[in-house]
């Protein structure tokens, strides 16, 4: 782990570090990356090659309408989409993956929360708690719940129907740990006084990347937090 990454939130570190490792596995031939749904300069902190980010909300280098990527076929060596797939309705996800493959020359790498039943239940509880403590649903969790996290069957369908010639899957994280950190942060926001602020600060420190080793598996574990899918264009 680079010293610059030590104090990032682990969840942010996990998704970008694993994607960066998957990009690096292709060697020095990767010269240009497109990060779909990313923010300016974020993935660039983890990789050595130039990254262009494209987003619908104006936070990327390029803004687009979300329907078709505004790039010619095979414009980028690698196309990534990190925690973007779960914010699309299920009926749009296959088309999104195929569009990413269209503009990729060597690989598409997608990361998203893994939709096991336990993970989905955990996020529903967190969203209900956020509503109770903060007074409104959490915007990201609300979309996860409305659209559904990609589960094993959907992941396999996306691979089979994408048109990719090769695929690879990895799994990482523990959604229970992330739920504990998220809950502590919410309670810290909702409560007043020095004790509440101290507890929130403690959980903030415990969520840093330096305190959580990164473990990867090629099969989903009982509490896997996220999956990483690599597809090779046809």
Q: Tell me which CATH architecture applies here.
A: 3-Layer(aba) Sandwich
Ranges where pLDDT stays below 50 over 5 or more residues in a row are none
Briefly, what CATH class? Alpha Beta
- What class do helices, strands and sheet pairing give? alpha/beta
The pLDDT mean sits at 93
Distance between the termini: 34 Å
Residues in helices, as a percent range: 40-55%
The number of helical segments is: 7
Order of neighbouring strands in the sheet with most strands: 3-2-1-4-5-8-6-7
Question: How is the main sheet built?
Answer: 8 strands, mixed
Number of domains: 1
How many DSSP-defined strands? 8
Approximately how much beta-strand content do the residues carry?
15-25%
CATH topology: Rossmann fold
Question: What are the secondary-structure elements, in order, as H or E?
Answer: HEEEEHEHHHEHHEE
């Amino acid at each position: 782990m680079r010293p610059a990454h030590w104090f990032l939130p682990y969840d942010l570190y996990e998704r970008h570090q694993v994607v960066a490792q998957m990009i690096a596995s292709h060697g020095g031939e990767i010269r240009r990356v497109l990060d779909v749904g990313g923010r300016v300069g974020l993935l660039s902190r983890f990789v050595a090659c130039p990254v262009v980010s494209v987003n619908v909300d104006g936070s990327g280098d390029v803004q687009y309408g979300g329907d078709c990527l505004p790039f010619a076929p095979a414009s980028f060596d690698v196309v990534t989409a990190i925690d973007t797939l779960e914010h699309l309705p299920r009926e749009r996800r296959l088309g999104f993956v195929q569009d990413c493959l269209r503009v990729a020359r060597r690989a598409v790498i997608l990361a998203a929360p893994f939709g096991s039943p336990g993970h989905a239940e955990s996020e529903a509880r967190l969203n209900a708690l956020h509503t109770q403590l903060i007074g409104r649903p959490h915007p990201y969790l609300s979309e996860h719940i409305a659209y559904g996290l990609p589960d094993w069957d959907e992941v396999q369908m996306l691979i089979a129907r994408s048109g990719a010639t090769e695929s690879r899957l990895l799994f990482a994280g523990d959604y229970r740990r992330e739920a504990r950190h998220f809950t502590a942060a919410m309670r810290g926001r909702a409560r007043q006084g020095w004790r509440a602020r101290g507890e929130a600060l403690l959980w903030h420190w415990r969520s840093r990347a330096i305190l959580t080793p990164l473990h990867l598996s090629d099969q989903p574990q009982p509490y896997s937090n996220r999956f990483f899918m690599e597809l090779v264009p046809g």
